[in-house]
Amino acid sequence: MSWGFLRDLLSGVNKYSTGIGRIWVAVVFIFRLLVYIAVAENIWKYELDEFECNVKQPGCENVCFDHFFPVSHIRLWALQLIMVSTPSLLVVFHVAYRENREKHHNRKLYKSLGEIDGGLLCTYLISLVLKTGFEIVFLFLFYKLYNGFKVPRLVKCDIRPCPNTVDCYISKPTEKMIFLYFLVATSGLCIVLNLSELSYLIFKYSIKCYLKSYVKKHQ
Question: Residues in domain Connexin N-terminal (predicted)?
Fold first, then answer.
């Protein structure tokens, strides 16, 4: 899969972000996207082929693998990357709307197209809420689907067509668990950054409104 579109999206959003938002973009791009492409994707590449059970009953390994890994870690991680990045499109679309509006009126309507104020501030706040929500939802999914953030070395399976309770072994469990912890840590860091940026923008806008009303009152 080509991740060029996500790289271009993050680069575009970076122009209209606050300082905290730029840190978030760097974390997503370096510690999540590049790690996914360079390392993690290869670790889970042959997970079904390397999943072994101590019986050779046709279909047993497949049904056991499907039971313990209903959704592949790596595919769920890829979906998470896409979902937490796409709300940033709202900001890009809003800036594009401002550009088209200025072209249509043939005059300057905004001090700066990418300045986070007015309607763009609301759009930016909505995108932050959505990103934080997606992060939390996916962390919850990881936790529920895999009974915690762990990859066991051995799982016992008694699902038909397995003839009895069989032992199945997961390949590279320690390596997979390390990257799963890394995923959880980077997701947690992104949640903290999103909440920090949300708090910062709300506080900044509140101070701005208070100062405006104070000056207006004394004038």
Answer: 42-75
